[in-house]
What does this fold into?
Amino acid sequence: MLCGNPYAGAHHKSGLLSGCAVTSLLALPAAMSLGVVLSPTQAQAQAVINTNQYSSVDLANYGAGPVQITAGTTISPATGTGVYGTGTAWSLTNAGDVQAAAGVGILLNAGGTLSNVAGATISASTYGVLMRNAGGSVDNAGLIEAGNDGISLNHGGTVSNAAGGTISGGHMGVYTGAGGGSISNSGVISTRTGTAVSLYGGGSFTNSASGQVSGGYSGVYAGVNGSSIQNAGIINGASFGAYLTGADSLTNTGSLGGGVDGVIDIASGGVVDNSGVITGTNAGLRLGRSSQMLNSGSVSGGTYGVELGNGSTLTNETGGLIQGGGVGVQAGNDVSIVNAGTILDGTQAGIVLGRGDTLNNSGSIAGVTGVLASGGYASIFSTGTIATTQPGGDAISLLGTADTVTLDTGAVISGNIADSGTNGLIVLEGSGALATNISGFAAGG
It folds into this structure.
């Protein structure tokens, strides 16, 4: 039994543990310590919203946070925002149902963190989740849907969409604004008219094997140099699967497709590493200047398999397939192509080379014209197969000035080698026999 006033030492450590109380308290189990020591959870008690609300909810009315909306609780104002927090970075967990028929679902005006758990719903006419004036973080395992953006982090932040989670918007699924964004997806992110995942201010996006991304315009957009996209799942866009704007990197081990182009980089310096599948109605892949493409998977397009800007490089590894309905690979000027895989076309040429391009082939290239060098000063070296699919057609056609063809041991040419330009040169190295028609070369060429 304790002696003395148990409250006498409330502001002094030794007051409670004085006299005979010392022995008694020390003998108590930790679980019976009279609540003197608070756990971190107890020290920062979570405010709970557990009754239905039919007007906008101000988080400031629930203390300093964190705040939880419990399962089975509905917040559904007739107009305006469902839940809002201002003045500080709020921490909010939603296990209920937030509906904003004429406004924003959840608005955190100074950023913060939001967890939308499995089974929870956020539905809004404008923005499902909107964070302004500071960065924020959203973890979603439930449903977030909106007429404009599913999630809009105007100053960047992180979004994690778990397997079973869905984020959808009329314009954008997830938007990370002017700040850098880090987005990971194992669920579904979609939009009806715009971009499903927008790294407007740059950042990274990782789509896991279970992740599905579908955009009304593009699946993923990267707005700043240095952005990184890694896809092991499915990304599709009505126009573009992935839309890059500069020296961004894309690694694809999954499936990526676009109604116009599978992947497009409108600037320079992009790097694409594909061991999955990339498809496009026009082109599978279109890269700007000084870009790099490494392929061990499949890239196909209705018109072009791959288009390369000036100064770019392409390595098609063993097992890699590039196929175009018109041209397999369309190269700009000063492009370097190394092929150990297969490059095919449907109606024009396996590869079209520009001015000063180099081609090193140990794989297989086939088309109505196998290789067409159109710009002059191209260098073609082959120990593999170059073939025409057209009876009597050209395996290699040179249209420019001072093009060079070097055939080494193992080279197979199925079709003609024709020089319609000037000063073309054929060099035979190693061993083997060349049994093909050669035309248009000057004596000694």
